[in-house]
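Below: protein 1.
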Amino acid sequence: MNPPNKQNTAIWIEKYRPSTFDEIKGQEDIKRKIKAFIKKGNMPHLMFSGPAGTGKSTLAIVVAKQMFGENWKQNFLELNASDERGIDVVRNKVKDFARTRALGNVPFKVIFLDESDALTKEAQQALRRTMENYTQTCRFILSNNYSSKIIDPIQSRCTLFRFKPLAKEDIFVLIESIAKAEDLDMEENAKQALFEISGGDCRRMENILQSCAALDSKITEELVFSMASVAKPKEVEEILQLAINNKFIDARNKLLDAMLRYGLSGQDIIKQIQRQVLELDIDDRMKVKLIDKCGEIEFRMTEGSDEYLQLEALLANFTLCSLK
């Protein structure tokens, strides 16, 4: 949902920033445990780890609002480690905020480090020391996609919560609420397409839906796939069936046509092919061979090989496997 005008953007953002746990979809077990911390008015250092768009940053803001009430801005420091990832940030910004006492009845402040897996090792070592020294006046919430990139001393100081991609029903609830608020005409198969493309990533789903709504208030499956630059699963399945049925040239032409029509890169289509292999009506042993070949082709493209040549080689392998 876009803000009405530039002057009101800051007010609009503040208004629509989540304030309660009910506004976060999914992650019920995590929310239940966090609520228990807030109820007691105390909490350990927290680490939120999981895929993008699953509610990690949103939950950190809700924790601050629920813990501090109207004083949450004075007691909450939010830093994105992708922008500010050096040791100086930890030594200066973080330490200066951590050493002062909190406002209100809560005995500590909260520092939220988003994308903390982007911190350098030196910055993480400095952060470890800061967490030790200011444990009486400050709590840390670290958000990351890969907890393995955080050094062990920091991991041992945090309670780890692993976020899961949002379930289909949660994504559908969000889609329906947005469609109602924005007066959009949503087709049922368009909802399914949004879920498949987003893969449980709420942010990606909302971005695609907003782009579609800018073009047409009627959201169709065709519009969703076109806007997301993703081929329809049925089209990918047809390409693979042609290759398996010993129609290599037809499969090759259809693949190139789909890539040009949707603006797909080689790595985009290889991921779709890999997912669609599992849906094919072929022997499990052949599925294993084809998925193994998908991994090999994807690696070659990552290393700089020609995309079209590698995809033709992959289709050739599909045809060869069917002839054995």
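Below: protein 2.
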Amino acid sequence: MKWSSLFLLLPVLFWGLSYIAIKVVLRELEPVEMIAARFLLATPVLYLIIRGKGLKVWPVEKMGKLCVAALLVFLHFWVMAHGLKETSASNTAWILTTAPIFVAILAKAYLKEAFNAYQWLGMLVACAGVVALTSEGSLSNLAWISSRGDVIVLGSCLTWALYTVATREITGKVHPLVATFWMTGIAGLVFIPYTLATSGIGVYLDMQPITVLSLIFLGVFCLAVAFWLWAEGLSRQSSAEVGTYLYVEPLFAMIFASVLLDEPITIWLLVGAALISLGVYISERHGRVKLHEHDV
């Protein structure tokens, strides 16, 4: 295996496992409490990585937009976590795979980017996959009470699209690791004091060991280390090769959720997963959808 492949495979493995870790942490913490701590853990590790690579964290361009991006990425994680409380890790992973299509739609609406027939076809196929996955073969399961978690997770695809489109100008000016450092740091500075004031430090001191380990995994490995490795892999392989790895992420999530959380792998989950993958593939292969803009 090439080192560049390992740089991409490890983050995808971490991100696939992240859905299971989030489910574990949400048993004891509220979404705001979890995300604030996750960002607080990631920020110093990102700083050490940045210094090790010889990059500068200051001065930095686009600080105003970095502040906006920090709030948007926090909002995205918050919405997704609320959805994940009410649906499975497998459903969440597959639904979030459609995020690049939402990015393309938003870019068409606000940046006037092209959206061709293949992208519309891909979107329809992916939507059919989401319906199959959510309904489990019965349209009655699409009722708000039954599918609320899936709908909220689908809504987080929109928040990710808002974040991605809003930060496109930043990525051309600021190194991705530096931008991630500032976004996690700014969001942490805002929400950690809020969490301590509203929930108190006791919520963290009373956590079970498995929750502590899951939270450390989410902050250190799924955010800081994964983004560093992903940036290294992106610099070494083509976007087409990178896309292949992102298709594997929800597969990891589905397998680990079955083993660790006893989530069933049903025929409708497999059908939905296949349609979602096909829809995103059509949109990416024949359109302007960029799979690397998938929620990671």
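The longest helix spans residues 209-234.
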